[in-house]
């Protein structure tokens, strides 16, 4: 028989649950009720006290994406909850398993106009897989377990649990040992496997597209082995980067918005796309050929991510189990030699093109200032190869999305914003990525606009001991918006999104004990990044600001046009 355990408050029960889950870090900004912090005092759980609730959820999302495990965030009530909504939207779009625990108005005061009273369930439900308010203390253990299991299973995503004032101080009895919130890796249906294997075997020019849903499911390089068996060109979505060995002889880059010539031609020539763990969102399929007959075999964990309306089929199940099953079913398959030769030609031409575009960018920058291509080259040389690059999605930082202008190589990782691309996500998420990654180097590349939105968290970065190398590309403001304005109004507009003014980041970083370097010439780039990385290796975050020009646009762009760039090959 199991002996029940009684905790003196609801928050003490939450703290005990966190300890049993193996939670290492909680992110957040608690409200006036400090009982959770009190309950965590004698546990090994780290509490990262943030300055903004949205950034707290971004940090938790970064932690979840980097670790592949449930991440936890806690906030107060009312406006504290509404401040998290952008973070929840991003966690949902990123399929990140995040548990948000919030306070709430007591049941005895609901409907009275109580302080910070809000129907919080109605606010968060559109952005979460599951949302629950616990109005009775005996319901808390089951609610915690259900929320966590929902977050990590099926298509992962954020969940919400509300602990209102009237139960916060009541004792909670846990009748049985806590269950671990482990993901269940479901095997696909055998009939679907056999049918899809026949479709794959019939293809002569296949492409393998690896999405974010394959993250943490390719430990043994089984995806690369399947690609070799099929002779398939390997692509990733932006969120799938870091899953594959980008030095692999079949790897040809990033799909959709970030595909460059001549790799884009492979999408014109393929006769089958095999999509592993991708929802086939707009950025992943942007610029795909308008070929209604192109079949897609889509492998996703749950039906809510299936894309219908195109030829092909879907397979519901774990990516790793599906890949292993296909490898067995397709044993002895003979790939098309002409297609293999075509892929080798594309990889050779990609390398030549990258060298030309780096030289073109250098010539286009007025005054001989640093180019983003030079920044990425210096970063590659200065930071160890197993680094994780955390990105934003602005004008200049988009350079690093384009392979081979930036490559994760064999050992590198990547965390990017989802289709929602909230400004400042990457800068904040990098804290969670670092705390989830241990000794692994973490670098964040962001524009100055995104960094300005995040920099109120520099005290948090210092307090948390998260040694992140921030590379801030300073073009004077919101470069993407300025480029779109210039297209509409020309250079004489009375409105402006950029300006040549000091950022003030140096004094702010140094005030909190962080390293800071300013770079305005190419010669200073690599020395600054090496010194900054040495600072990080000693355990202190560093900020390197690099002055870049608006004319230095990413390699796949011919110009900005609203949400998406005009591709240079169009």
Automatic annotation (TrEMBL):
<protein>
    <submittedName>
        <fullName>Thiamine pyrophosphate-binding protein</fullName>
    </submittedName>
</protein>
<dbReference type="Pfam" id="PF00205">
    <property type="entry name" value="TPP_enzyme_M"/>
</dbReference>
<dbReference type="InterPro" id="IPR045229">
    <property type="entry name" value="TPP_enz"/>
</dbReference>
<feature type="domain" description="Thiamine pyrophosphate enzyme central">
    <location>
        <begin position="194"/>
        <end position="325"/>
    </location>
</feature>
<dbReference type="InterPro" id="IPR011766">
    <property type="entry name" value="TPP_enzyme_TPP-bd"/>
</dbReference>
<dbReference type="InterPro" id="IPR012000">
    <property type="entry name" value="Thiamin_PyroP_enz_cen_dom"/>
</dbReference>
<dbReference type="InterPro" id="IPR012001">
    <property type="entry name" value="Thiamin_PyroP_enz_TPP-bd_dom"/>
</dbReference>
<feature type="domain" description="Thiamine pyrophosphate enzyme N-terminal TPP-binding">
    <location>
        <begin position="11"/>
        <end position="122"/>
    </location>
</feature>
<dbReference type="InterPro" id="IPR029061">
    <property type="entry name" value="THDP-binding"/>
</dbReference>
<keyword id="KW-0786">Thiamine pyrophosphate</keyword>
<feature type="domain" description="Thiamine pyrophosphate enzyme TPP-binding">
    <location>
        <begin position="415"/>
        <end position="546"/>
    </location>
</feature>
<dbReference type="InterPro" id="IPR029035">
    <property type="entry name" value="DHS-like_NAD/FAD-binding_dom"/>
</dbReference>
<dbReference type="Pfam" id="PF02775">
    <property type="entry name" value="TPP_enzyme_C"/>
</dbReference>
<comment type="similarity">
    <text>Belongs to the TPP enzyme family.</text>
</comment>
<dbReference type="Pfam" id="PF02776">
    <property type="entry name" value="TPP_enzyme_N"/>
</dbReference>
